[in-house]
Structure formats: structure tokens, C-alpha cells
Design goal:
3 copies of one chain form a homotrimer. Chain A is built from 5 helices and 18 strands. With about 350 residues, chain A is of the alpha+beta class. In chain A, strand 7 and strand 8 form a beta hairpin. Chain A is globular and about 80 Å long. Chain A starts with 6 loop residues before the first strand and ends with a helix. The mean pLDDT of chain A is about 95.
């Protein structure tokens, strides 16, 4: 069960080129994504209404898609516009389409009630495409429920253990208490780690002479949208002194594929060394390596939990944010179900 | 659930040689096929009555088969004739056998009530072994329910899309209406496509100077036996003028393996260019390639339908034959269940 | 359902070195095995009590293990001794541990009520580590329920068929009747095969001039512990004449992994040709090859039985031991369930 009235990232822009018919499963539903002649993306259910053949095996024809089993043709609104061998088109011959928009380099789909699909509510992912920022598109497929990944993002104490050799560097991160703020549709977390050693990848990028201050400031929405600003600066300087600091803006979108798998789209942009592409590449490689570490742990955890899903867990102080977050998700789901009932 | 009182093809003759013990699953049951010393085929359930070991790991000994776990030996009627270390043979020690006959080069098994197993009802597959016809044995394993393959065979409009590059060549096939005739235990379909382009593989074999007439005349029995005569002739000549025509006789047997998989035995014989083996090989290759195209589409369709099996489909005019056919299958199944009840 | 109040072999000694954290599933439960600084083995459930992360991804720290997700640290008794970022340790923060001992080269775990875990009841596996015996550690993973393997061990008539080319050599083994004796917690079987041909591997090791006497004397406990002495001697000599005889002491431990899979630990020791390592290697290779033969047959049998688990089997005289044995297992299970109820 997922929150449906929300924008979810379905693809990077470059995954859907002029002739592509991309198949993807989102919230348990198989859909296809393609572009009209003018480049506008279209999202349609991946099932011909005639005999259930997948439209992902279909052929793009102008703004339309033709099912390549018996040749039925659908326009971008999902209406059947051609049935080979017959002139009358059955009025029920249509496939479902979904609201879709592209913002910066992400294609977003709305799987819920189209009446509520307001693009103004899409998260601001400016750093993915911005003259002052550099990034590289990232994607991972996690074999785990989205909430286990949210748990991970809501408690950075794991950096000291899961990411000891990449993001971490010291148990100091685990020992510092973070500030947790409830927002309307998500949670904000600020974690300041004073006077610590730089993470291995920060040291490679920043060449700090000694110890550093690190900080993270991020929000996670109830539908898995994670936006973070994070920085490292030498202890000799003010926390917000940009000179010599490493500052990152990270956009991460968790889109449930099914109850047991999640699409993880990410961009980890830097606003320093803009002319040095190797900095962005190195930063990307470190983030991708760290996400592998998360994936390995979370997938293993998912298997353990699946054996005995109702067995109690023992909470600790660091779980505050994830406990609050999970309560908010349950609330949002309940509200959506209630709203459907009242229609 | 399958119609059991019917002859199903279980194997090509060459799959069961003198010492072979072939395992195959038919209508969800695992069976073994072997030959007696005189070459007569035997079909037996693949389960020793003693401890359930598979007889497919057994050893042929004359007309008998010996289970190679604890050595029990069964004759061709399924009766146990030896228990190592004991002289008395338990009266219940027997395994089930099934009526079986070989016709032309196919071995047919009867999985239902043996009392009704009349070999006279076996379809005529003369072209598989005939001095005036040439063919090459074909087999494919489809990961889909048999009825989805029957649907495919009952609506050749798909040739224009699925087989665009092999059997098809033009959307004309989809646009022509076929004649559908209900038979006693199946459906006959005649489709005449006048003044069209030859299919790519017809052009390779027939070197037609220009446009052609094409025709298909076939029956599909309720138990998945497909027999077709099909032809192509230049538009300049009469439809039935054999001179320069390409005429094919096709025998295709769909044997359910399980509810989700089907054995597809096929032969696509030609009665022209009898001395040119490359013609038969080329024809076989084209058919095999086309069946790959069908398989890809049907298996994908099966996955889509399995997600939501009860969701309605939107019928079109071309579905007439498959709708009639599916009704006949349901009727035949119901009659068989009723007959079992009355025993 | 398994007998829990019993010692099961969980690993060979060399599988758990100083820094190893070994994951293994026993009786359907995932556990980890590691060693304290003094070498004593520890067995713990493979699930951190905090968020369910697997301790098999954890890190050994002295006698403790640290979960590498959020850093909780557990001592060898399963008690949590550190929660990063918090001084108070929740009283419920502990993971289950299991009684464990090492004997000769096997590590044994007790998955049942710790109050009953008496190491004095562990089977005597002296030949695994003894100056007068030579052996090589063996392990196989069987994709079948443990009882199907016990069946196999309780009727050596299968040697003539399954192991025709390795252990068998003649149907004489199947034709001889064995003596079956009920013990307190198992069954003893003695099978004497007089005046027969040597098994192929005996002939390779023993170079007998002609026919031989063979004998097997073994016990199988209700929890799958198999201990056997077996021998071969020329027919010209007394059965118990050690001169020129081949005598083996075999320890085989069947530990259920799940209802459908079994760990098979084995040692097949010889007490002759002590200075010739090739004899032990050859003997090991023959046993390992024979166990492959068993595995292939038993896994195939398991699949056949799984299709229709309730279908009756036809007993023969050779099934006496396995029938008695299965009754004892049911009795032991029932007693254990009854005992748990009375607590």
C-alpha cells in the first residue's frame, strides 16, 4: 500500500529518447513512458485493452503508440484511434494514462487521482541542472521496501558503521545527537558534527590540513523525496565560510517499484571546482559506492525482517526521527484512504 | 484444468530411441516414455510406487523399466515383476500406464479414461512423413497457457504486426475478414488475402515477379491440434493453379505441460522443390523465427494478464473465432467433468 | 517441525577461524557462529534486536560482535553492551544465544531448551581426530527433507542400484536381509554380505585376490546422527581378521537447514595404511562421489513426492527399519511438544 496522490520520479530524462518506449513498474503497476513528437512525456498503463498485450512491445507512431500484437493504435490520451480490419472503434477501447511532467532532468508521474495532480508541488531539484552546480545522474535498484531505505536516511548514525570507509570515517557521527523538526509532509533533520576527522572521500576532494566540522541539513518527504545540503569545512574556519569548504546539494528520489523493491534516483551535486569534471566524477563514485553499502545492508535486513515480520524491535534514542516519520506515513495513507471513501 | 479424453503429442519419434527413458510433463503430470524391444512406445507415470523415486532415473531392461533407487522392476503394463530381496510381490505394487501410439513421426498419449482411447480419432498428420512432402521436425517450449497460443492461431491479423518481418509483410492480412466455421470439436478458418505483397520468406522461396494472392485454410481442435494448408500464388494466375505456387501443409500440436507452459510440436511441410533440401530448411527457419516472435509476445502477454486475471478485455470483430473456440473448450471440459460424475 | 532438544552439528572447526562470523541456517533459523578470543565458539541468532539487521554482516570485537548497521555491540551472552550515542542501554536489548560446544572437529549447537543441553549426550566421533585413524572433512548440501536422507541410510539395498559403480558392485547387498534393533533414541542395523564381489572402490584400495565378505554395523539416532563401522575382508579369512581387511569408521551428521534442505557433514575414516595419504583421499573421493549419487536420487524423489505428498506409498520388506525409525521420530517430536506444553 502506497501513497498515490504524489509525484514520483519515474525516469531520468535520457532514459526516454525520441523513439524509446520505456517500461517501468511504479507502485506495483507496470507502465510505459514515451515522448510525443514535441518531446512531452506520456505515461500509459502497460496493457493493451484488447487482449492484454504489453504496450512496451509496441511501436511509437508520431504521438501515438501501436500495440504490436493485433495492431490497435492509441493516442497520447489513451484513446484507441485505430482497430485494423474494422472501422467502428469500441467506445471502451482505451488505456489509462497518468499525469506526467518533466522538471530539470527528472520525469515525474502522478499515480493517484489526476484531479489533484498539481505540478507546483513537485520538489525543487534545481541543482540537477544549474550553471553553478555540477552533478552526474545516479540510479540504483534496491530489493527492499521503501520504508527501510527511509529509515536509513533518517538516522545518519549508520554512517560510522555502514560507510566507515566512504562517508563515515569516525564514530563521532553516531555519537552526535541530531535536531529533528516535523514539517507538514515530512521531516527535517540537522546534524552538526564538530571537530571530527574528514570522511575518506572528503579528504580526497578537500585536502584539509587537519580536523573538520561537518554538517547535514535535509528533509525527507512522506513520499520518499530527500533533499539535502551538506558541508565540510576546516575547524580553523567558520562553519559557513565558503572558502575551501566542500558543499553538496543532494536530490534523492525513492520511488516504490513494489512492496519489496524501490527505484533510487539520485544526484549529488557540488558547487565548487566547477571546471574540474574529475571532482564531480569522484564525488559520484563515492556516493555510488556508499549506496552499494546501504543496499547490501538494507537488502539483508529486509530478508531478516521478512522471516518474522511481526517480531518486535528494540527502539533506541536515535530512532526518534524514523518513528515520527513512519507515523506520518501511516497518517497520510489513512487520510488518502478516507478521502477515497468519501468520493 | 485440461480436457483429458484426447490424444496429445508427447514426443517426436527421434526423442525416444532404443535405450531412452524420456521424462516429460503433460497436463501437469510427470511421465516417462520409452520403447519396448519391438519399438512400441510405453508411457508410464514417473513415480515408483515404493518410495516415489522418479522412474526417469531408472534403467530400461528389455520391455521393463527398473527403478534405480531400490531396484523394483516394472513391466510395460506397469505391474511390478521384481522386488530385490523378497519373493512375494505386493499386489498394490504397480505404476499407472497410459495408452500410447505412434502415427507418422509423432508419439501420442491419452491421459484420460483408457476406455475411450480410440486411435482412429488421431489427427491425420500425413505430411510429416510422405513421399510428396518435405519437412523438418520442430519443437518450442512456450511459457504460457495453451489457450493464449490458441487465441494467437485463431486470429491471423497478428501476422501483420508480430510477424511483420517474417510471415507478414503487409497490414492487408489484418484488414481482410476471415470465414469462421464451427466444427464438431473445433473451428475451421479460411482467410483469403488477394492482391498483396508476398511475405519476406515467400519472396525468398518463390521469387514472385510482383503481387500475390495468399490463402490460409486451417482447423484448430478443442485440444490444440492445428492442421493447415496455406498457399501463395502470383496474382497473374488462378488461386488454385499449382504451377509456381508455394503450398504448405502444417501440423502443429499444442500439448499443455502445466497451466502456465505448453509444448509446441510443429511441422511445416512443402510439396514443391522436393529435391532441394535448402527450401525445406529455409522454410523451417522462417517458421521457427516466427514462432519465436509469437513466443515473445505471448509470454509477455501472459505476464500482464497474470497480474490481474479477472480484469475485462475489450473485444473486437477479429475475436469472433477465439470467442467461439473458448466457449467450445469450456463446453468440452464441462461435458467431461459431467461424464466423470456419472461414472 | 524438528526435534529441538538435541545437539546438531553446525560447522566443521575450520569453517570458524579467529575472525570469522559464519552464517548458517539450522532448523529453519538463521544463526551466526564465531569464536571468543580464547577460541570457544559462540552461537547467536542472526538478527540485531534494534532494527533486524543481520549480525552476519557484523564485526567481531574481542569476545563481542558489533552490528555494522547502527553500531550496537553484543557480548558472547547476547547482552547489548554499547549503543552509540546513548549511555543507557535498554534492558530488552539482547539477542538470543544457543548452547554450543566443540568435540573433535565438529561444532555442535543446541537449538532447544538450554536447561536440557548436556554435552555428555553428544555422539562419540573419535575417528575424526585420532592417531589410529585418518580422515578428510566432508560436507554436502542436500535439497531435501532430512527424513528422506534417513530413509536412504536405513536401507542399504540401494547400494546395489544407486551406487552400482561406487559402493555397490552387486545386487547381493539388496538381496541380503539386515538385522534391525531398536535402541533408546535410534536404530541399529547390521548387514552381513557373505561371499560377494568387492565394491569397485574397495577393489582399488584392497586389491583382494577374489571374492570378499562385507559387513556394515551402524546406528542412526532420531536426530540424524549416523555412526558406522564397516569392513571388507577376503572370503579366505575370518570376518574379523584385521590382516588385509579394510575397516572404516564413518561419522555422518544430518542437520536440517529447513524442511526442504539438509546440511550433511561427514567423515569416513580408515584405520589401515595410516602413512599413505592417498588412501584417505581415494576413500574420501569415493564417498563424496557416492553421496552425489544419493543427492541426485533423493532430490529427484523429493520433487516427485512434493507434487502429491499425501499419496500412499507401497511398503516392501526392506522398509522395516525406516518405518520403525519414522515412528520413533514422530514419538520423539510428540514428547517434546508435550513437554513444552507442561512447562
Amino acid at each position: 500500500m502506497f501513497i498515490r496522490n504524489a509525484w514520483y520520479v519515474v525516469a531520468w530524462d535520457f532514459e526516454v529518447l525520441a523513439d524509446t518506449v520505456l517500461e517501468r513498474t511504479v507502485l506495483g503497476e507496470s507502465i510505459v513512458v514515451y515522448r510525443k513528437a514535441d518531446g512531452e512525456p506520456v505515461v500509459m498503463e502497460n496493457r493493451c485493452c484488447h487482449r492484454g498485450a504489453p504496450l512496451s512491445l509496441g511501436r511509437k507512431e508520431g504521438d501515438c503508440i501501436r500495440c504490436m500484437y493485433h495492431g490497435m493504435k492509441f493516442d497520447a490520451s489513451g484513446r484507441c484511434v485505430e482497430v485494423p480490419g474494422q472501422t467502428l472503434i469500441p467506445p471502451k477501447a482505451k488505456v489509462r494514462t497518468y499525469p506526467v511532467v518533466q522538471r530539470t532532468r527528472w520525469i515525474w508521474v502522478w499515480m493517484g487521482d489526476p484531479a489533484h495532480a498539481d505540478p507546483a508541488t513537485i520538489a525543487d531539484t534545481f541543482s540537477i541542472q544549474h550553471p553553478k552546480w555540477r552533478t552526474k545522474p545516479g540510479y540504483k535498484h534496491f530489493g527492499a521496501n521503501v520504508l527501510l531505505i527511509c529509515d536509513n536516511l533518517l538516522d545518519f548514525s549508520h554512517l560510522a558503521y555502514v560507510h566507515e570507509k566512504t562517508f563515515g570515517g569516525s564514530s563521532a557521527i553516531a555519537e552526535v545527537r541530531h535536531e529533528v523538526t516535523k514539517l507538514d509532509h515530512g521531516i527535517r533533520i540537522v546534524r552538526k558534527v564538530p571537530d571530527t576527522v574528514p570522511a575518506p572521500y572528503h579528504q580526497r576532494l578537500g585536502h584539509f590540513p587537519g580536523r573538520v566540522n561537518r554538517w547535514f541539513d535535509y528533509t525527507l518527504s512522506v513520499t520518499g523525496m530527500f533533499i539535502m545540503t551538506a558541508g565540510v569545512q576546516s575547524v580553523d574556519r567558520a562553519w559557513d565560510d565558503p572558502d575551501g569548504a566542500l558543499v553538496f546539494h543532494s536530490c534523492q528520489a525513492l520511488t516504490p517499484e513494489t512492496a519489496d523493491a524501490t527505484h533510487y534516483f539520485f544526484s549529488h551535486a557540488n558547487n565548487f571546482a566547477l571546471d574540474d569534471a574529475t571532482v564531480t566524477e569522484a564525488s559520484y563514485q563515492s556516493v555510488a559506492a556508499a549506496f552499494e553499502e546501504d543496499m547490501r545492508m538494507i537488502q539483508a535486513q529486509a530478508k531478516v525482517l521478512a522471516r518474522d515480520p511481526d517480531r518486535p524491535l528494540v527502539p533506541i534514542a536515535a530512532d526518534l526521527a524514523l518513528t515520527q516519520y513512519r507515523a506520518m506515513v501511516v497518517e497520510a495513507l489513512a487520510a488518502e484512504i478516507e478521502a477515497r471513501r468519501n468520493v
